[in-house]
């Protein structure tokens, strides 16, 4: 069966995450940025080492963690790069912290974006260029970018 370039790329990335059985254990370790120091993840090297012993199908992390601890997960699990984040210290609204291009450069198999809906954000969604709608724009950009990179723009 002949597959398009984007079809090959999508299938490859999805299979890295879901494997042959179609199921996945996906572990997110992206809470320290938004919540501050969280008990149990203050030693990221130890935490990631313990997670990797369990053999997760994917790991959702921020770009700084990916860059600093690459040797702990690269080639052993799929990378899901968290591209947005909210923080109790600055704003409850999700803010872009990584680009789709950075995700591709880091070898991510997928990206994760968040959209926290609260009354203030619902009002902002009515505005065309609202901060609350940026995660959705990031996801759309990711799909368009990955399709273009794979040759079917």
Tell me what the structure shows.
- With 153 residues, the protein is α/β, with parallel strands linked by helices.
- The protein has helices at residues 5-18, 32-35, 44-53, 63-68, 70-73, 100-105, 119-125, 134-149, and strands at 26-28, 58-61, 78-82, 84-87, 91-96, 110-112.
- The chain has a four-stranded parallel sheet. A two-stranded antiparallel sheet has the order 4-5.
- A hairpin with a 3-residue loop joins strand 4 and strand 5 (91-96).
- The longest helix has 16 residues, at 134-149.
- The radius of gyration is 17 Å and the shape is globular.
- The model is unreliable at 128-132 and 146-153 (pLDDT under 50).
What would a concise description of this structure say?
The protein is an alpha/beta fold. 44% of the residues lie in helices and 16% in strands.
